[in-house]
Amino acid sequence: MTIVCTMPVATTTHGGSRRLPFVGNYWTGLVPDNPNVGPALTDFNGMLHVAYSAGGDLVHYQYDESTKRWGKRFLLARSSATPSLQAFDGWLFCAFRADDSHLMYTTWDPVDGWMKPMSTNKATWGSPALYLLDDKLCLLFSENDGDRRTMNTVFDPSAKLWSRKPIAASNQKTAYGVSATGFNQGTALMAYQSNDGKGLVLVDTYGNGSWQHEEAVRGSSSTDTPAIAILNDVITMAYNARNGNADLLWSHQHF
User: Fold this and answer.
1) DSSP-derived secondary structure for 102-171
2) Is 102 exposed, middle or buried (0-12, 13-18, 19+ CB in 10 A)?
3) Does the residue 26 lie in any domain?
4) Is residue 28 scored above 90 in pLDDT?
5) Are residues 13 and 130 in the same domain?
6) How confident is the model over 171-200, as pLDDT tens digits?
7) 101 is in which domain, residue-wise?
8) pTM of the predicted model as reported, rounded to 2 decimal places
9) What is the pLDDT of residues 80-115, one digit of tens each?
10) Residue 98 sits in a domain of what CATH number?
11) Would residue 23 count as lying in a domain?
């Protein structure tokens, strides 16, 4: 797997905030509040959900397709980092870095709403990443120390605990946080920045029971944790360029 294609995504600027205009019949609009870091976006039970930090408050909205508006505002916790959302076992999970660097998680359902945030008993430097692998809920994060090695933990639904034992750690080093996605059986991808001051965008692959190797996006340099997704065996990443305009770039390659 070699990722070779990097293309700019058209952006416009309004009031100091960068927007991404879509083409065709898609729309561009403002979300409520004023996010100070990147959001997390996912679907759950046929509804679109977004969570992000606004002024240090971690907030959650659902999108109402009938009115084309974001609904009631829910306050989850205090956090100034990008969270992660993932549907699992009938719940919407949210993992986030608390202001004291503890790695926290909480769950939501339409009846009871958000549960009180709980600790994973771990600390993280940057943004975590929830993803599914072999029908398990997994969580990647960077350790809160100088090395910032990426670690992997797995959720035990019966005990409601996180354990590192079932899946080997990736043991890579990241400048800040990670993003991840699982696909097919026994395969996952992780994206992150190099921890050497250059911000090189890197991708690591999980297969055959372990994280195997990392690939670099040639010529890349990012100021933030890249986002990663895979559709029809095509890997796509989006990230901010390390330049004066912070251009939003995307790269893709067949897996």
Assistant:
1) EEEEEEEETTTEEPPPEEEEEEBSS--EEEEETTEEEEEEEBSSSS-BEEEEEEETTTTEEESSSS----
2) middle
3) no
4) no
5) yes
6) 688 888 999 999 888 899 999 999 898 999
7) 31-123
8) 0.85
9) 899 999 999 999 999 999 999 999 999 999 999 999
10) 2.40.128
11) no
